[in-house]
Specification:
264 residues; alpha+beta; Erythroid Transcription Factor GATA-1, Chain A; His-Me finger endonuclease fold; two-stranded antiparallel ribbon; two-stranded antiparallel sheet; 7 helices; 10 strands; rod-shaped; disordered C terminus
Length: 264
């Protein structure tokens, strides 16, 4: 076989190679590795992070000696971006809250359930047809809201007016030690057909509570100051003018009172 003599570039010894290894430059692998160590392809460089001298193995690693130094330098250069917190307005509790997901409409589970309950009540309220009632105090027709227990009075004002009207005379009779019972003044006026029992003129219901002469008023036949009782047969309808003229006397009313008491 044809052989060629060559001189080793590292140790200087002569060695022979065949015709297929014409490009061989060293006699052995040890000389090849030693020569490459002494004559590197890339020269020594200084690491920008730790300051150590290193021999780069590739063109990419030309500033840092290792990946650790590279990542540490990148962390030092890159500043963390501030977290942007987005807030949303809760329509139930009227407050702001942090958005966790794009589909969040309420700040908590409690507000979500509360809003669902309100929607359910609105739906039932629209479907429900409430009947109409007549107020026993003002006489107006009213339809109570869904869930309301109003059946007799249209408002709290009418309910208080009737209760105060009944209890006012009872307190007066109780203080004087007279007999008393729960009597609605409107019942007495309806019994007397809204007519004055003294002058027999009409006292319309519209004028009740006014200062007109024919305004209807409830009067005790025997006044409470004279020992009269707060009972239905001791009460009558008088116009405002006759009631003022009578005052706390019993003039002209004894015969009427006696007949009513006897019939009662």
């Amino acid at each position: 076989m044809f052989k060629i003599k060559k001189n080793c570039e590292n140790c200087g010894k002569d060695y022979t190679v065949n015709k297929f290894n014409k490009r061989q430059r060293f006699c052995c692998k040890a000389c090849s590795g030693q020569w490459r160590y002494n004559n590197p392809k890339h020269p020594h460089k200084t690491c920008l992070r730790c300051g150590k001298a290193y021999r780069p193995r590739s063109i990419e690693r030309n500033k840092y000696c290792s990946r650790e130094c590279y990542h540490q330098s990148m962390k030092a250069k890159v500043k963390p971006k501030p977290k942007i917190i987005y807030y949303k307005y809760c329509t139930v509790c009227k407050g702001d809250f942090k958005i966790r997901a794009s589909s969040n409409l309420y700040c908590s589970e409690r507000c979500r359930r509360k809003r669902n309950a309100e929607r359910q009540r609105e739906y039932v309220r629209n479907k429900h047809k409430t009947p109409t009632y007549t107020c026993q105090e003002c006489g107006k027709e009213f339809s109570p809201e869904y869930g309301s227990k109003r059946r007799v009075f249209c408002s709290n004002r009418c309910a208080k007016r009737k209760s105060s009207r009944i209890s006012k005379a009872i307190r007066r009779a109780r203080k004087r030690g007279n007999g008393y019972e729960s009597v609605d003044p409107l019942m007495i006026l309806d019994r007397d057909k809204w007519k004055c029992q003294n002058c027999n003129i009409k006292a319309p219901k519209i004028l009740r509570g006014t200062i007109e002469d024919n305004a209807p008023e409830v009067d005790h036949i025997i006044p409470l100051a004279a020992g009269g009782k707060h009972v239905a047969y001791n009460m009558q309808c008088l116009c405002r003018k006759c009631n003022q003229m009578k005052g706390d006397t019993i003039e002209g009313q004894l015969l009427l009172f006696a007949g009513v008491e006897h019939n009662g």
